[in-house]
Every structure is written in structure tokens, then in C-alpha cells.
């Protein structure tokens, strides 16, 4: 899952980014509202963590523009203003949740999980393809009932594929699911992750098919294929 953190406090942003990445989230960080507005127009995210007191463009305006474009990406507002009036105002303006600073990271992680579950593309928290099973609540994979060991980027790629099992996913979509503001993700890198995943899925009844010029497709291998 790909998150955008919009926060001008560099110490807080660095700590929160590292903490969330340990939970297997791909996190991009920008430190002002103008940059946030730009990347939200050009990139795709599963959830936004948005500070309100931002330079160049306030968080209120970033949120307003996002919703005016018809973008329903879940947004959690992070702010030091914990008054009832402020909470109601932001929720009325399109925020999905509100977390006051200072906060416990465990609470924030729980709120992130709730919103991601609500916006998931599938209603069933478990998705299966052959012996491969994705557990939506924990974001873990099992293979024949045993935990499947994956790197963070392998997990993200496989997560995108299994949530669209049976459908073609382009390289650009897979690239957007991984951190791009930090170090970029090339088409060659996507091929490497897919190659590694194919080896880990051997004999599982699930395979990743390459569709030249289109992308990749995760499907079940039938015995009579």
C-alpha cells in the first residue's frame, strides 16, 4: 500500500516515514502544500496523511482541491488543533479521520488500517489464487498455509496483482504502487521483482503471466493447462 505523508516538521516526518515503512507501507513524503497538490494530481496513493499548517499552501486548501477533483483517496488529518470545531470542520471538508498531535503511533496505524480496509477493492478480507492466500487485515501472504517471506517491494507488487487477480496490471501501475519520490522505480526493477515472485510461487498453482506491451496478470494454473 502506498501512502503520502504531507508534513513540514522534518524530524516528525523522518520518524513517521521510517516507522510506517517497517509496517510494510510504501511512504512518499513532501513538506509543503504546493508539492502535495502537485503529486496528488500526478500520482496515485492509497491514503494521505495531511498536516494542516503547511508552507506555500495550507492543508485545508490541499484537501479542498483534492475533493474538488473528485479524488476519494482516504485522508487522515494530522494537526495540533484538537478542538471540536476544528475536527468537525475538517471532516465536513472531506477528511476521513482526524488525529491530534502528539499522537501514539499505534493509534495512527490502527486508523490507517481501518481506512484502507474500507477502501479496499475487494469485500472479502482474504483473496486466494491457487495455494496463495492474501490476508487483507494483516496484509500478509501465506502459501499452502505457511507464511510467504517477501521483501517490502515484492509484497507491494504481489499485493497489487492479487487485489486485481485475473486482470492485467500495467508496469506503470505497479511502479506507482512503490515509492517514487524517494528513489524512483524503473521498468527493469519491476521485471526483477516479478521474476523473484515467480520463483517464490513455483508449484503453488498461482503464476504471474507477462502480457507483452500490456503488463502482468496473476492467475491460477489449472492442471489441464
Structural description of this entry:
By secondary structure, the protein is an alpha/beta fold. The protein has two domains: 2-118, 3-Layer(aba) Sandwich (Rossmann fold), CATH 3.40.50; 126-220, Orthogonal Bundle (Arc Repressor Mutant, subunit A), CATH 1.10.10. Helices cover 39% and strands 23% of the residues. It has helices spanning 10-22, 33-42, 59-68, 84-92, 105-118, 152-163, 171-176, 187-200; strands at residues 2-6, 26-30, 47-51, 75-79, 97-100, 126-129, 132-135, 140-143, 146-147, 168-169, 206-211, 215-220. The strands form three sheets. It has a five-stranded parallel β-sheet with strand order 2-1-3-4-5, with helices on both faces.
In short:
This protein is an alpha/beta fold. It has helices at residues 10-22, 33-42, 59-68, 84-92, 105-118, 152-163, 171-176, 187-200; strands at residues 2-6, 26-30, 47-51, 75-79, 97-100, 126-129, 132-135, 140-143, 146-147, 168-169, 206-211, 215-220.
Amino acid at each position: 500500500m502506498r501512502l503520502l505523508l504531507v508534513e513540514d516538521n522534518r524530524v516528525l516526518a523522518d520518524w513517521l516515514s521510517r516507522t510506517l515503512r517497517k509496517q510494510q507501507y510504501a511512504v512518499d513524503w513532501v513538506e509543503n502544500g504546493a508539492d502535495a497538490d502537485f503529486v496528488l494530481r500526478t500520482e496515485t496513493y492509497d491514503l494521505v496523511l495531511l498536516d494542516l499548517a503547511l508552507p506555500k499552501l495550507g492543508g485545508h486548501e490541499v484537501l479542498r482541491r483534492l475533493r474538488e477533483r473528485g479524488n476519494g483517496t482516504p485522508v487522515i488529518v494530522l494537526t495540533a488543533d484538537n478542538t471540536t470545531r476544528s475536527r468537525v470542520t475538517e471532516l465536513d471538508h472531506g477528511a476521513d479521520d482526524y488525529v491530534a498531535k502528539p499522537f501514539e503511533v499505534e493509534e495512527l496505524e490502527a486508523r490507517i488500517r481501518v481506512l484502507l480496509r474500507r477502501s479496499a477493492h475487494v469485500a472479502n478480507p482474504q483473496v486466494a489464487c491457487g495455494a496463495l492466500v492474501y490476508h487483507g487485515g494483516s496484509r500478509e501472504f501465506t502459501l499452502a498455509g505457511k507464511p510467504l517471506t517477501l521483501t517490502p517491494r515484492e509484497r507491494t507488487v504481489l499485493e497489487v496483482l492479487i487485489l486485481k487477480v485475473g486482470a492485467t496490471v500495467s508496469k506503470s501501475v505497479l511502479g506507482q504502487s512503490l515509492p517514487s519520490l524517494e528513489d524512483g522505480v524503473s521498468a527493469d526493477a519491476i521485471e526483477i521483482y516479478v521474476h523473484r515472485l515467480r520463483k517464490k510461487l513455483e508449484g503453488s498453482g498461482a503464476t504471474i503471466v507477462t502480457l507483452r506491451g500490456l503488463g502482468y496478470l496473476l492467475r491460477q494454473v489449472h492442471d489441464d493447462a
